[in-house]
Amino acid sequence: xxxxxxxxxxxxxxxxxxxxxxxxxxxxxxxxxxxxxxxxxxxxxxxxxxxxxxxxxxxxxxxxxxxxxxxxxxxxxxxxxxxxxxxxxxxxxxxxxxxxxxxxxxxxxxxxxxxxxxxxxxxxxxxxxxxxxxxxxxxxxxxxxxxxxxxxxxxxxxxxxxxxxxxxxxxxxxxxxxxxxxxxxxxxxxxxxxxxxxxxxxxxxxxxxxxxxxxxxxxxxxxxxxxxxxxxxxxxxxxxxxxxxxxxxxxxxxx
Length: 255
Description:
With about 260 residues, the chain is an alpha/beta fold. It is about 25% helix and about 20% strand. Helix 2 runs parallel beside helix 4 (about 205-215). Residues about 5-10 have low confidence and may be disordered. GO terms for molecular function: cysteine-type peptidase activity.
């Protein structure tokens, strides 16, 4: 049974991001899992029913290029902040218009209705190794050595170190989500959804976007979810179901 919660008395806004192509991944399973949730409204009392009213949980989605500098530019805007650094690169392979429009910055150029009060929940989804769906507990500030899909590297901090520099000096080497991952995993498993908790988001753009979001949030609950490749996991539909349930759970606890 889900936890006992008071009904949501207003619309709770959830943003979920998925990634675009990179390396040999032409169609990113994270975006395949996220896209069907765009503009879905969930009933405040259960994640299994949609709602037509203005109350409940509203989910919006967008696609992000696998590009460090774009993350530095985009993620603060998602949280209503001005970017400290970064330049957005429009990847023409992204699913238009969910990946934005060339020459425009968020929210312009996206099919997004950015809430005036900001998002209550922000969930980032990326593809990881095969096997289970994993909820990530923390993100790292340094050691981003792999090139992104545009063959660019994370900002250089020293001859041997790359990661978050200017504007992020006040933050720790490791930032952890405020969400109780153990309780969330337990709730999902009681619903028959197999997920695991993870403490290693991979030191690539997935880890990078998680750190950026955790350090730019102005109150939104932030989480990162790794889904497995299509050929080595439970399938896209199951991943979408897990993400929908996670969104509802976090939204109904943040109201």
